[in-house]
Amino acid sequence: MTTNAPGSRLKVQLAAHADDIQRSLRLRHQVFVEEMGCKAQVENGLEFDRYDPFCHHLLVIDQDSDTVVASTRILTETQARAAGGFYSANEFDMDMIHHLPGRVMEIGRTCEHPEHR
After folding, report:
1. Residue 117 and residue 114: Cα distance in Å, rounded?
2. CA 14 to chain centroid
3. Which residues pair with 62 in a beta bridge?
4. What's CA 22's distance to the chain center, in Å?
5. CA-CA distances (angstroms) from residue 116 to 5, 16, 67?
6. pTM for the whole thing?
């Protein structure tokens, strides 16, 4: 799935393959680790955690440079079950969420390249 706004050089798409995900993890490293000084799991300039393989990765790509300029990850409830739960459950009491009707997903690790803020 790819979406372009008419007249915009930006496109939005879900990561289609491992290279797309690595581009997102590289941007996260730049923003969270280098810029913000967050302590994170890092390898080869990529910021990641155990939830990433279970997530959809939504990317905003500058078509002129083919650069990922923003990203976020999406963890559906089905994927969360496979991952052993939602990331947020490590930080918050999620009991009330589990009793809500309908489907639930978690969006996180959202970041944007400094030149595109």
Report:
1. 6
2. 10
3. 10, 67
4. 11
5. 16, 23, 11
6. 0.87
Rounded Cα gap, residues 25 and 111, in angstroms: 10
Alpha carbon separation from 2 to 9, 22, 34, 53, 54 (Å, rounded) = 13, 18, 29, 21, 20
The CA-atom distances, in angstroms, between 65 and each of 27, 62, 69, 97 are: 14, 6, 10, 40
Domain 2-116 has CATH 3.90.1150.10: no
pLDDT (tens digit per residue) in 71-85 = 999 999 999 999 999
Domain layout of the chain by residue ranges: 2-116
**H or E element: which one contains 22?**
helix 18-28
How many residues appear in the chain?
117
CA separation for the pair 49, 69 (Å, rounded)? 20
- Taking only the tens place, the pLDDT of each residue in 11-58 is 999 999 999 999 999 999 999 999 999 988 899 999 999 999 999 999
Judge whether 69 and 114 are in contact, CB under 8 Å.
Answer: no
CB atoms within 10 A of CB 25: 24
Measured distance CA(30)–CA(34) in Å, rounded? 5
